[in-house]
Amino acid sequence: MTGKEGALLLRYDDVSFTYSGADGPSVKDIDLSIAEGRCVLLCGRSGCGKTSLLRICNGLIPNFYYGRVTGNVLYRDKSMLGMSISDIVSIAGTVFQDPKTQFFTTDTTSEVAFGVENLAVAEKELGRIVDGAFKAMKMEALKNRSVFALSGGEKQKVAIASIYAMNPAVYLLDEPSSNLDHDTIGELARIIGLLKSEGKTVIVAEHRLYYLKDIVDEIYYLDDGRITRRFTKEEFLAMRAGERRSLGLRTMNLREESPEADQGEDGEECLRLENVAVFYGKRPVLERVDLLTKKGECIGIVGRNGIGKSLFVRALTGLHGDCRGKFMLYGRSAGRKERLKHAYLVMQNVGYQLFADSVEEECRFGLEGASEEEVADVLRRLDLYKYRKRHPNTLSGGQKQRLAVAVSDVSRKDILVFDEPTSGQDYESMLRVSDVIGKLRREGKLVLVVTHDYEFICKTCTRIVHIDDGMVKDDFALGGGAVGQRKLQALF
Q1: Which residues form the domain of 336?
Q2: Strand arrangement, sheet containing 8-19
């Protein structure tokens, strides 16, 4: 699906930008021309400047993120840098990496209507537009839902629908697949194809690449803020795996990957669940869960968006109390407080658990016994040492995720739980997170990972627990032959 190339729509003309207080520019000397109706991929290592390029186009730079801009961005030969935000929203709509940061209301229908209402659309027309957006996105089941009760993937779909309802010419998608399951990523690909068929221009900043292989028209690779390479789709797909990995890029074909984590020796029993049920309000999300875990395992918790995986691991760690059944730790009954003493959770949205004024202080915040050497070592292994004096909020999304992983490494807990730890991570960063988890396993820790990342599972996990329809559907090891691999591939 290549789409028909139209007239020149958008042009970056020698654009550079430096955030206020930053040591150097985030993007440098950008020259980029994009034709109408094209799908353009911006790729590169975490922190290379992809998100900044999108912010320059949607007006957040320099109207919200202050700094020095040079050069120009032109839409149909008219400068966007001089436009008001109200003018830009009719041109460019953005879906952020964390969609809930762009929500303004408390229910899904109002959220999809919000942007259109601000364009002064008549009430009768408003209802037709909102219904059309829900239908086009195939998300009628999400109407009139609380945005606080949605999974990460469901929030992403609502964010896309809210932009679709406003009908901009340009769609800017920042890591749109980062928290989506495999089926929903397929739906995202369908939506991008739909936008192209309607003549829209789509610019995607992304690490997870495989789902774009039939949609993307041209690819721009950024390195340290500069566009250093340009590929046609054919050139990009023909790239050898070694070259792609040397650029820090993810696979274009999931079937090239296979489980490779060392199973290790059979460890001591750690956490056991017997007939556990987990509730959200009065509704049971999971029931009849029996699970035996051992030290040194890395268990991948997989399943569709909104199925209850995050709630399940919160119950495991003691952070969610509305559950029934027996939890046992090292053969003894373990209530919430006992589990909280032994477990550490890296949340899907790590912004909720970053509190300190610098990266290195964050690694010691509220923890006892973390030495300077330990902190420096884990920051180096996660490629964060050079940022150790920076405030966590100045990091990219992927860097924040790795910082939370660093904190877990020095927490001295027995059970480490990671909820989507590779969202926003390039190939090399994904390997660094995998390396830290391997170290934790060798130290005898129990690791559980909620993830939709097939590559990461293959590199890291020794066992899979598949959750669906309110229960554990399957529980299987990944080592010891092709059976585990076939079962894993069936889920992706």
Answers
A1: 269-491
A2: 27-35, 8-19, 67-75, 78-79
